[in-house]
Every structure is written in structure tokens, then in C-alpha cells.
Design brief:
binds manganese (II) ion, Stationary-phase Survival Protein Sure Homolog, Chain: A, alpha/beta, nine-stranded mixed beta sheet, 11 strands
Length: 253
């Protein structure tokens, strides 16, 4: 089984090493093509206004000076001979739950894989405390990753669908199990805007991630992680709101 690994935290991110550990439990045919620098929050951006560079770190490990989508594109078109059987994106440092997924480079890399017709899975480790940086723990992902992935390797997945996995911020032995979930929704828009002054006296703004309020609707990814379970959500790329289609059609008739 040929597996392409990528992420949005960059080629040097600890979570990518965790993902490689997990993937090696299934195959030795592992290829890595990840962004050169952290690209969290870049969503499904594709670099169009400047060239990207492909850097070779060893025979099967590459980085791209661009977004997660750039990395998957280069992985599929320039790095690997023939399509991989599986694309794994992560393990992201931080949650990709509910509406987070529209911002997520981690999930978007899996979206790019799904668009290319490859089975694609995004993995994210929720952390308990903001600001842990590289000290964030990937314990739950490391211990449970293979168990979560095993059934996903041969589960039939329709075209243009992908899987979004989130590990709760718990030591591995306190994780309560794995739940199939639907996407939840946060109650209001993202985080905070922090204002500061740079060394030259100019004002800058920096978007912060604070604990976002949400209602823990039953069956959602948010509820599962809150209750100590690993969340496994099937996602689809058809964003059409089908029940509004008729209404809208009538307005234009
Ligand atoms: Mn990230």
C-alpha cells in the first residue's frame, strides 16, 4: 500500500513524525510531501501568483514552498510514481472540529486528495491548553491512530468524500473509544483579534484562537471529543444546500 503523508504544520512538525509512526504500522511504502513552513489556517488555498519550489530531503521526503493543497498537488504529480492508495494529512496540532474545517489546511489537503480520487483522511490532535506549541501532546493520536485507521482502509467511500478524525486531549489510556460523528457547529465566529505594537511603533493585529462557545449537539464531532471519544466524521465536497434549490429556482423562474 502506497501512502502519501502531508500536513499543514510543515515538514518539521512533530505531528508529521507521529503520523509517519502510525502509517508505518500499515506499510513501508511511505512518501512525504508537506509544506516547507507552517500553513495552518490556509484552507484550500492554491498558490497561483508565484512559483513554488520542491525540496528533496531524502529519497521519499519532500517539502513544497506553498500551501497544503500545493503539497498534495506536487506529491501526486511530481513526487510519487502513480497514484497512492491513501493520503493521510496531519497529525495536526489542534482541533479541526465543526466549522474549523473550512479554515483547515489539514482537512483541505485531504479534500485535494479526495478530488484526485484518492482515499484521504485528515487527523488532528485536540490539545487541552493553548500555547503549548511544540510541547503539545500527541499521545492519543500516537496510541490510537492505527486502530482508528484500520477500518477506514477498506470502508467504501463514495467519490468526493473524505474522513476527518479528531483525537481528544487525553492520555491514551483515558480515551473512551471511537465514535462516528457528524459535523457540529460553533455558536459564533472565530476567536479574538489581539492588538499590539511592533518594535518600530506600528500597530499590528494578530488573530487568536480562544475557547469557542458551542452547543454540544448530540452525535456531533464536538460532543464526541468533549466526552473523551475519538471523532471520525465522513465529509462530502458537495456544499449545495439541496433543500433550498427548489425555492431558489422558483425565484428565478
Ligand atoms: Mn495546523
Amino acid at each position: 500500500m502506497k501512502i502519501l503523508l502531508t500536513n499543514d504544520d510543515g515538514i518539521r512538525a512533530p505531528g508529521l513524525a507521529v503520523l509517519e509512526e502510525i502509517a508505518r504500522q500499515f506499510s513501508d511504502d511511505i512518501w512525504i510531501c508537506a509544506p516547507d513552513e507552517e500553513q495552518s489556517g490556509m484552507g484550500h488555498a492554491l498558490t497561483l501568483t508565484r512559483p513554488v519550489r520542491l525540496r528533496r530531503h531524502d529519497e521519499r521526503r519532500f517539502s513544497v514552498t506553498g500551501t497544503p493543497t500545493d503539497a498534495v498537488t506536487m506529491g501526486l504529480r511530481r513526487v510519487i510514481d502513480g497514484p497512492p492508495d491513501l493520503i493521510l494529512s496531519g497529525v495536526n496540532r489542534g482541533a479541526n472540529l465543526a466549522d474549523d474545517i473550512t479554515y483547515s489546511g489539514t482537512v483541505s489537503a485531504a479534500i485535494e486528495g479526495a478530488l484526485a480520487g484518492v482515499r484521504s483522511i485528515a487527523l488532528s490532535q485536540v490539545y487541552a491548553r493553548e500555547g503549548a506549541g511544540d510541547a503539545s501532546s500527541f499521545a492519543a493520536a500516537r496510541e490510537w491512530g492505527a486502530r482508528v485507521l484500520q477500518p477506514l482502509l477498506d470502508t467504501p467511500l463514495p467519490k468526493r468524500t473524505l474522513i476527518n478524525v479528531n483525537f481528544p486531549p487525553l492520555p491514551a489510556d483515558r480515551v473512551r473509544g471511537i465514535r462516528a460523528t457528524r459535523q457540529g457547529f460553533h455558536d459564533y465566529s472565530r476567536g479574538t483579534v489581539v492588538e499590539g505594537r511592533d518594535p518600530r511603533g506600528f500597530t499590528y493585529y494578530w488573530f487568536g484562537l480562544e475557547q469557542i462557545e458551542h452547543t454540544l449537539d448530540h452525535g456531533t464531532d464536538l460532543e464526541a471529543v468533549d466526552e473523551g471519544f475519538i471523532s471520525v466524521t465522513p465529509l462530502q465536497l458537495d456544499l449545495t444546500h439541496h433543500s433550498s434549490l427548489g425555492t431558489l429556482g422558483e425565484r428565478y423562474s
